[in-house]
Amino acid sequence: xxxxxxxxxxxxxxxxxxxxxxxxxxxxxxxxxxxxxxxxxxxxxxxxxxxxxxxxxxxxxxxxxxxxxxxxxxxxxxxxxxxxxxxxxxxxxxxxxxxxxxxxxxxxxxxxxxxxxxxxxxxxxxxxxxxxxxxxxxxxxxxxxxxxxxxxxxxxxxxxxxxxxxxxxxxxxxxxxxxxxxxxxxxxxxxxxxxxxxxxxxxxxxxxxxxxxxxxxxxxxxxxxxxxxxxxxxxxxxxxxxxxxxxxx
Length: 249
Fold this sequence. Notes:
Elements: H1 3-24, H2 33-61, H3 69-72, H4 92-114, H5 119-147, H6 151-164, H7 176-185, H8 193-206, H9 228-237, H10 239-243
Helix pairs in contact: 1-2, 1-7, 2-5, 4-5, 4-6, 4-8
């Protein structure tokens, strides 16, 4: 088993699982029925894609591993998601901004993966990118509506941009797994940064929003260093497995 490829797959899976879990917290609490349903469906998309990556990771590792072992039986330090996806919803604006930043990155990364020499990853990417196109359109449209909406909506979403932007740099900062994938398969996370920034700035301009100044970014998630928020997520996510180890439905 190529350990760096395995870790890269877990990076993808963990991003999808944790973001999907966060968005699922809106189920039954959306600002309007239509948005409640939309957010719930988006959360299901993320978790469904996480499953595909976890299944691939389990197949690679063997030893009786299943897709359930990765979300339910690892500690925080064994998760490799970026810190951005851990952040609380706080309000609808924060949820949209978090997804907006991540959706653009993930879309451009999946576009690379569809052309990858790694056949299994390419097949997953070709399926996943269809859903991510919708996620990207949804978060972008809401950025325009909230940013160029009322004075209150503009203020709130601008604050979310200010707070969450410093967590975006990690998406493009190569981990050891990212460096291996670039060398072995031509998948380069760092190379999509300018493409991401151009697309993000264009929509922010339409939404009368601005990125904050500064070039310092949080990092560590890809290497297992997380905010305290991930611990609370895993406490909820893993409770039944911890209370009743190896229980089967």
